Amino acid sequence: MNPHMRRLLVFVSLVAMVMAVSVPVQGSESAPPDAELEGRPIDPIDVGELFCDAIDYPDIECFASHAELDAAIVARLGEGLLESGYIRAYADSNFGGASMALDGDISNLGSIGWNNRISSIRSFGSESGTFYENTGYGGWGYFVCCNQQILYVGDLFNDQFSSFDT
Ligand SMILES: [Ca+2]
Ligand SMILES: [Ca+2]
Predict the structure, then answer these.
(1) Which residue in 81, 95, 85 sits closest to 149, CA to CA?
(2) Which CATH number goes with the domain that contains 98?
(3) By residue range, what is the domain housing residue 128?
(4) What pLDDT sits at residue 103?
């Protein structure tokens, strides 16, 4: 390879590196999830098996039971609960199984062990949000609002949600 050609190749690879750094990657706008169970760090995938407060996603605080999660949310939101509101998603129908409190965008529920698992939902206060068929808010949306108590999302939507936004 002659020196001129080598300089050209170095230039082309530098341009490629700069472009790779400056072009934003779709869906990477948020930090990776950071989950804890009673103060100790856990694998974010395990969030799907627990009872977690993901209101401050990507920071997630998990508990071993519904009762502990309920107490933690009341302690956080207190009297302001009805005004601020939040969404609660459950793995099983009738508000059963693992559950998670939500109040912000999550572009990939699979990153926290919740892909295609939600079967029932409650909205507290005036909170509204949309669950989507695909990650990155793609496919159809399932809108939830305003103190709705959805004991079962229905056969069409059961175990289908892959992302969420408010
Ligand atoms: Ca389910
Ligand atoms: Ca899905």
Answers:
(1) 95
(2) 2.60.20.10
(3) 30-165
(4) 93
